[in-house]
Amino acid sequence: MKIKTFILSILVGYLLVTSAWAEHEANHRYNIRGYILDSNQQGISGLAIQVFSGTQILGASTTDSDGYYSLHLHLHNVDRGRTLLLRAGKHKAELRVTFDATDQTTARVHEANFVDGTFTESRLSRFRIPSWVYPLGGFILLGVIVVALETRRKKKIRQKMKASHANQQATKHKAKKGRRKKH
Fold first, then answer.
1. Domain coordinates of the chain in residue numbers?
2. Is the whole model's pTM more than 0.90, yes or no?
3. Which phi and psi (to 5°) does residue 46 adopt?
4. Which candidate among 26, 39, 105, 112 keeps its CA 20 to 30 Å from the CA of 19?
5. How would you write the chain as a 3-class SS string?
6. Among 95, 118, 94, which Cα is nearest to 37's?
7. Assigned CATH class of 24-128
8. Cα-trace Rg, the chain
C-alpha cells in the first residue's frame, strides 16, 4: 500500500511541476528563439539579447554555451503585425510579429538567428534535445524506481520466508530429538 501511495504522489508531483512551466496562456505567449553563431558556425556564448518595441524593452536574455537563446514575451492578438527590434550584441534586426490569431492553443514561436552577422528567420538544423524527451525520461526513471522498490520488497519477503522455514526446521529437529530420548 505504501508503494502505491509513494508512486501516486511522485506522479502527481511530476504533473504539477510540468504544468507549472507555462508562464501564461498560449495565446498571450510569444517566444523568440534562435542561435547566434560566428563565421565557423560556432555558438557565441554569454551574448546579451534584447527585444524592443520602440524604446521599450520587452525582454532580455543571454546566449548559452551553444549560442542559443530563448525569450518569452507577453503579447496579445492585437500585437500581430507589430515590428520589434532584436538586438544581439552589435547585431540588430527587425522582425514582424506573425502568428495565427485564431489558433489559441499552439505555442507562438519566432525563429531568429544571426549567422556571422547575417540575420535569418528560419530554424537552424542544430542538435537540440526534443522537449518530449524530458517527460519520457521522467517516466522511465519512475519505472526504474518502481521496479527497484518492488524487487526490494520481494527480497524481504523471501528472506522472511527463509527465516520462518529455518525456524520450522529447527523446531522439527528439536521435537525429533526429544522423541528419541524418550524411547
1. 24-128
2. no
3. 75, 15
4. 112
5. CHHHHHHHHHHHHHHHHHHCCCCCCHHHEEEEEEEEECCCCCECCCCEEEEEECCEEEEEEECCCCCEEEEEEECCHHHCCCEEEEEECCEEEEEECCCCCCCCCCCEEEECEEECCEEECCCCCCCCCCCCHHHHHHHHHHHHHHHHHHHHHHHHHHHHHHHHHHHHHHHHHHHHHHHHHHC
6. 118
7. mainly beta
8. 31
